[in-house]
Write a structure and sequence with these properties.
It contains eleven helices and seven strands. The protein has 209 residues and is α/β, with parallel strands linked by helices. Helix 1 runs antiparallel to helix 4 and helix 5 runs parallel beside helix 11.
């Protein structure tokens, strides 16, 4: 059982931990635009091909959208691709943000997300109660800025080093079993979040102990 008194730091994932996401919405929107979506390229927990290159900041947003457009009918517009790509982003829940604000009084808090420029532009400044993710966390870490992604252990090591924190004093929450396993290998206690609201009552119970 986790003892929050033993932890000085908590790292949160973004998608389906803080904000609800539904990848199928984007799949369907892209299909309507004429893009033959392939889950080998894009799925909930990992990307490949130019999707992964975009996630790790190897290619720019313009290059990414251009590559998407090349796989679609000529009448499709740049903005239509962007809107379809961002359609998977749904809602933050105030209860999650309220819980994080409680933790902020006693712990250093960090965000570590496999994400991309378009998604961050869409969701980073729409957080209930605080406005932006930057105001919610001591520091945010995004795969496309770091040029690396989970579940590679190097991204966890980079965060620990940059933040000046110790693995044994850190708790990590993520919805991907592979990401959780990678963090655990480095000695970071980790919770697998199987649905977005799962961690909230558990964390509140620990806060009240």
């Amino acid at each position: 059982m986790t003892n929050l008194r033993d932890k000085k730091n908590i790292i949160f994932d973004l998608g389906n931990v803080l904000i609800d996401i539904n990848l199928d919405i984007t799949f369907q929107r892209l299909k309507k635009l004429g893009f033959a979506t392939n889950e080998d390229f894009l799925n909930t927990f990992h990307q490949t091909g130019f999707f992964k290159e975009y996630e790790e900041g190897i290619i720019s947003t313009e290059e990414f959208v251009t590559l998407m457009l090349q796989k679609m009918p000529k009448h499709v517009l740049y903005k239509q691709v962007v809107d379809a790509w961002n359609a998977l982003l749904l809602d933050y829940k105030a209860e999650r943000i309220e819980t994080i604000l409680k933790l902020k009084k006693t712990h250093k808090l960090f965000l570590l997300s496999n994400t991309n420029e378009l998604h961050i532009q869409k969701c980073a400044d729409t957080v209930p109660l605080v406005g932006s993710l930057d105001k919610l966390f001591d520091k945010v870490y995004y795969s496309h800025i770091m040029n690396m992604s989970k579940p590679n252990e190097n991204i966890f090591a980079a965060l620990l080093s940059d933040a000046g924190i110790v693995a044994s004093e850190t708790l990590f929450l993520d919805d991907s079993p592979a990401n959780v396993a990678a963090a655990q290998k480095l000695g970071i206690e980790s919770w697998l979040v199987e649905y977005p609201d799962q961690w909230v009552p558990k964390m509140n119970a620990l806060i009240e102990e």
